[in-house]
Amino acid sequence: MSTEQPKQPILKKITRGLTVGSVITGSTFFHGPPVLALGFTKFFKKSRKVDETNIQITNSWLSVNNWLIDHVLPHLEWDISIDESLDLNMQGRYLMTCNHQSWVDTTVNQYFGLTRMPLTRFFTKWELIFIPFVGQAFKILGFPMMKRHSKEQIAKNPELKHRDMEEARKACEQLLSQPFTLLNYLEGTRFTQEKHDQQKSPYTNLLKPKAGGLALALNILGDKIDALVDMTIVYPDGVPGYGEFWLGDVSRIAVNLRKIDIPDWVKGGNYEDDAEYREHFQQWVDEIWTEKDQLISRMKQKYQSHAQIPEPQQTTN
């Protein structure tokens, strides 16, 4: 984290770390096997009841993490702002975009969404499927898993590009049988100043957005979603690592949710093969990203302004 936090007693931090590690590990071994076992039955017969049960188990899995946040990290303050036009509910169908700074971002999303929105899936790397329990659960629960091929690989075998998109298309279509929240980190990777400089990003607080995944999701789901939601996460005291978060070194997290209006022309376009549509779509995403960049600056300024207010001095008679 970029801003030094008040140091905690070392024994208290060790105790917290052991508690969090033990509970998360135990919860994973408790919830993971049932999800996998039920998921394997889908190879023989697809069942909506199985899907609903798996989601219930997964929500129970996530609720353990939320319990830890509320009871083991008691000094964490949340500043959550939701657009008045955004009517969220557990039966909705949502696409969501979000800035990406840390692994903590997904934990923040899950903490916020557990009681407000359907289970959040997100576009993720295929390689994560090899993580025990977690990776297989991603696949079973319908997370769109993308295989990233290099330009050299695609040049040798152009079919790789279309194969990956077709797999993502199938994953998106499978979501339509149930309420869902599909999250896309448009930056494609976590923000660092080094990456920002290498990209020569035109934004102050963001990397350049990669619009292809969002275009695909809107092409498939555009007429069937209730809202396109943009989540913005700011860590006023500096971006934390995953370990720092669970050790209690994060004191404040700010979250803003706003509704993004989807123009009619966006739905049904061919991003891959229509150059004119692709350019128009990228311009639209750039406008969203510019507004988001300005929002992040305002959110940061809010906390900087508060920090500059001097503490009232005590006087003695």
Q: Can you put this structure into words, describing what you see?
A:
There is one protein chain. The chain has 317 residues and is an alpha/beta fold. The chain has one domain (10-304): Glycerol-3-phosphate (1)-acyltransferase. It is 47% helix and 13% strand. The protein contains ten helices and eight strands. It has helices at 10-40, 48-71, 104-113, 134-140, 151-156, 159-174, 193-199, 212-221, 242-246, 275-308, and strands at 77-82, 93-98, 120-122, 124-125, 145-146, 180-184, 227-234, 252-260. The protein has a six-stranded mixed β-sheet, sandwiched between helices. A two-stranded parallel ribbon has the order 4-5. Strand 4, helix 4 (134-140) and strand 5 (145-146) form a beta-alpha-beta unit. The chain is globular, with a radius of gyration of 21 Å.
Using only C-alpha atoms, the radius of gyration works out to: 21 Å
CATH third-level topology? Glycerol-3-phosphate (1)-acyltransferase
Structural class by helix and strand composition: alpha/beta
Shape annotation? globular
Strand order of the largest sheet: 1-8-7-2-6-3
Report helical residue fraction.
40-55%
In CATH's first tier, which class applies?
A: Alpha Beta
Count the DSSP helices. 10
Number of domains: 1
Q: What is the strand tally?
A: 8
Q: How would you characterize the largest beta sheet?
A: 6 strands, mixed
Protein name: Phospholipid/glycerol acyltransferase domain-containing protein
Domain Phospholipid/glycerol acyltransferase: 94-236
GO molecular function, one term: acyltransferase activity
InterPro entries: Plipid/glycerol_acylTrfase (IPR002123)
